[in-house]
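Hello forum,

I keep getting stuck at the same step: I have a sequence, I want structure tokens, and every attempt I make locally crashes halfway through. Rather than fight my setup again tonight, could one of you with a working pipeline run this one for me? It's a single chain of 167 residues.
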Amino acid sequence: MNRLWFRLTLALVAITLISVAVVSVLAQVNATAQFSELFARQRIIAQSALINALADYYAANDSWEGAEEVLRAALPSFSRAPGQPGPDGPPGGPRLRGRGATTFVLADPTGRVLAATSSRGISPMLLPEQLQASLPISVDDKVVGRLLVSSPESDLLAEAQQIVIGQ
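Reply #2:
Ran it on my machine without issues. Output:
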């Protein structure tokens, strides 16, 4: 009888440990997926705001001259994960280590580069795949430019997930 009690106890402990491990893994996978979706949505919102700011700039000036300032002003919203302090954030607070900067490239509708926040690796014309990936900027239902956002998003996302999930 003593051996049976020991075996039953061992079986219940094993089942409990396996159940806890499975629930833990599923919770982590779900949290990671949810955070990835949140981060992607916030980037889309930030991109939409930048597209609107550029469209307003073009409508007011009828040219892209000086649009670099609009691009530079938008960089802080793309350079950190949601809820993370910027470079001047509180001392001792969690921060993301930069592994490269987000780059904005403004081009005309044909793909000729007009302005960029970084000159590293930028050619005078967008490549066909870059033109395809760029976002149109429209004023009065006419495409007046294209915005290409290039960032080390996967590095930022991985670090941001680790901070939120607590790994």
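Strands lie at 103-107, 113-116, 135-139, 142-150. If your local run keeps crashing, start a new thread with the error log.
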